[in-house]
Amino acid sequence: MSKNEQAYLDLCQTILEQGNKKQDRTGTGTYSVFGAQMRFDLSEGFPLLTTKRVNFQLIASELIWFIRGDTNIQYLLKNNNNIWNEWAFKRWVESDEYQGPDMTDFGNRSLVDDAFAASYREEMNAFKQRVIEDDQFAEKYGDLGPVYGKQWRAWQTSKGETIDQLKEVIASIKTNPDSRRHIVSAWNPEDVPSNMALPPCHTMFQFYVADGKLSCQLYQRSADVFLGVPFNIASYALLTQLVAHECGLEVGEFVHTLGDTHIYQNHVDQVKTQLSRTPYALPKIKINPALPSIFDLELTDIELVDYQSHPAIKAPIAV
Description:
CATH architecture of the largest domain: 2-Layer Sandwich
Distance between the termini: 34 Å
Largest sheet: 6 strands, mixed
Helix content: 25-40%
Structural class: alpha+beta
Strand order of the largest sheet: 1-2-8-7-6-5
Radius of gyration: 20 Å
Strand content: 15-25%
Mean pLDDT: 95
CATH topology of the largest domain: Thymidylate Synthase, Chain A
Number of strands: 10
Number of domains: 2
CATH class of the largest domain: Alpha Beta
Order of helices and strands: HEEHHHHHHHEEHEEEHEHEE
Number of helices: 11
């Protein structure tokens, strides 16, 4: 059994047994602990969960979206990636221009009202199609504001200049590997209150070089353990492998440090189902050896090898 995956399963069990029952912004309610940490030895394999199927293509295309500095869901939709739709859709249905049926609390209502669920699907599909086909509409309602990609690649300074944090940190790893400043931050206090569709949950990460290996630690302020965290683990493990590839290093550890670490109350049954399953061996990642730079990355440059998993487990997203 993979120690990597067991770290995640143990965290789920701890939250179910010891979590504090709390209310939250979405009105769903959570079971929460504070200050958890998981460590993943990337030499053991790629930490994509096997106790439920996780869509690697969604993780890879989202990471490429971040790396490119993009903040508009149009690229994601064109790559059949729907993981950010709800936040953009929420902006659209709350706008003065929207004239369709009432979509208030669409995430929860669609679970208990079949007629509403059909209406929601129709409105969401129309929204997605319009974002894909209408660049002007996409620019206004497909953009999520200065979320991860913008902060990683074009952090706005008080002087009106921009900082390409990701490019600078890669250059620093190459030229000064022992530095303690290999840090990228997505948490920009000026942008959080009003400009972002969703304030960054994974707020900052730091690289560390030792013995020819690259490790990464992520601090995540808010962690949706069932739906979000499996993606976060795989995304930052993949980012670590890509940066190591570019810098000519082997991979070390991915260390995942979490603040408010929670399971939504309407995810408990799904978590229990996952905990009843036995993990498979972890898959591996192959990166195109001819890839000149992480900034030239395409989906075809990454291959997931030998992924075996239990079936996916569906659960509602809290928006």
